[in-house]
Every structure is written in C-alpha cells, then in structure tokens.
Amino acid sequence: MDWSNILFAFVLTLFAGLSTGIGSLLSLITKKTNKKFLSLALGFSAGVMIYVSFVEIFVKAKDALTSELGDVLGTWATVGGFFFGILFIAVIDKLIPSTENPHEVHTVEEMDGNSEEHKNNLMRMGLFTALAIAIHNFPEGLATFTAALSDPNLGIPIAVAIAIHNIPEGIAVAVPLFYATGSRRKAFKWSLLSGLSEPIGAIVGFLLLYRFFNDTVFGLIFAAVAGIMVYISLDELLPSAREYGEHHLSIYGLISGMAVMALSLLLFL
C-alpha cells in the first residue's frame, strides 16, 4: 500500500470539500452575485465530470472487471455498477427535503427582510442546507478519493470539478446564515464545516473497503463513481448553471470543460 498516494488522494478530497468556504467568502465579501461566472463555472464542472466519467472512469472500470470476470459478465457488472451509482445518489437526493436542497440557487440579493420570523426562517434554511450538503457530499468524497487513488492525474481534474460545484453550495449555506445572525464568522464556519463531509466520506469509505480492494471491487466502485458523477452533472450542475445565467453560457462552459478534460488526458498519453 502506497501511503503517499493515499495522502495525496486525501489532500485532493479535502481541497474539494473545503471549497464550500470559497463560495462562503464570495457571498460574504460581495454585494452582488456574479451569475455569469457561476453559470460558466458550473457548466465547466459538468463538462469535466461527464467527459471523464464516460471516456476514462467507465472504461477503466470495464477493463478491470472484464479482465477478472470475462467480457460478458465484466461488461454487465460495469453497467450494473454505473446504474447503481446513479440510483445511490438519486436516493440520497430523494431523502433531502426540497426546501433544504443544497443545490437550490441562492444569491446575495435575495435575503432581504428584518423581521424576527424572517431571520429564524433564514437560520433554519442555512442550518438544514449545511446538513443536506454534508449528507450529499459524503459519496462525492469517496468518488474523488477513489479516482485520485487510482490515478493521481485523473484525480486532479475531478477534484477541481467537484470544488467548482461546491462553491454555490457554500453560498447556499452562508447567505441565509449571515442574514439571520449578522455574523460573517458564523456563516463562514458553518459553510466550511459542511464541506468536511467529503474528506470524512473518503476516510470512512477507505477504512471500510481497503481490506477488500482487488480489481473486481475497484472496478465496481469505479463504475459507481462514473454513475454518481454523471447524475450530479445532469441533475444538479447543468440546471443550476442555467438558473444562474443564460442557457448558452452553461453550454459554453460544458463544452469548455470537456475540451480541457480531453486535452489534459491527451497530454498524459
């Protein structure tokens, strides 16, 4: 077991998780949300994740499983793992109440109102959103960690894509909490803590699975990771990107993300 690779994968996952703090800082130091930037960034993140899921992760999963189980059974196992990943993250999304969905679009401008009831509602929204993000980011942490552990060159762009997609989640926590409490420190703290579930997910997943790591288990996990990332992109990133900005901006970001991911993979051939 190469502990340097494990440490590198964990650091990447920690970086991705704590990027909720970037979103928090952006919302707390600016008076206006840069919607065009977020639209492009979220589209870019979706492009990276979709491209790498189908071109790299799914293929690696299939290679590992077919070499262990044979062409037919290995291919079936790869497809099964892919859709299991989609089902897994979809169930997590379903369990999160829609009013506290971490991917609900929030902006700095929307939090007006000074009544005590309004502040209490904002406090509840912020805290429940932080909890929802923590639950939701747990499998994302395992996905980032597993990808980085398998291939550090693959883990870096995935970590960056996850980090970009965590920025609006930080905004979703920090904005209501700041307007409820008037404290930037508390809003930033809760936003940052909500992102810690990603490295925690990586640690827990690794401790549970490392004893069983072989090509078959690794292939199944990788197939599930591909499914998780495709679901996140189609269900969360692209809809959020379109809500923040114009339709074309999200598509430009999507294509740019795919192009950058393709180029980065070509450079390591």
What's the SSE blueprint?
Blueprint: H1 3-18, H2 20-29, H3 35-69, H4 71-95, H5 116-150, H6 152-181, H7 184-195, H8 197-209, H9 215-244, H10 247-267
How would you describe what is shown here?
The protein has 269 residues and is mainly alpha-helical. It has one domain (3-267). It contains ten helices and no strands. It has helices spanning 3-18, 20-29, 35-69, 71-95, 116-150, 152-181, 184-195, 197-209, 215-244, 247-267. Helix 1 (3-18) runs parallel beside helix 6 (152-181), helix 1 (3-18) runs antiparallel to helix 7 and helix 5 (116-150) packs parallel to helix 7 (184-195). The radius of gyration is 19 Å and the shape is globular. The two termini are 25 Å apart. The model has no long low-confidence stretch (mean pLDDT 79).
The largest sheet, given as strand count, sense and whether it forms a barrel, is: none
Helix count, per DSSP?
A: 10
Number-wise, the strands total 0
End-to-end separation in angstroms reads: 25 Å
| H-E order | HHHHHHHHHH
Poorly predicted tracts of residues? none
Q: Provide the gyration radius in Å.
A: 19 Å
Helical/strand content category: mainly alpha
Shape: globular
Number of domains: 1
Quick structural gist:
It contains 10 helices and no strands. It is mostly helical and 269 residues long.
Overview features:
mainly alpha, 0% strand, 269 residues
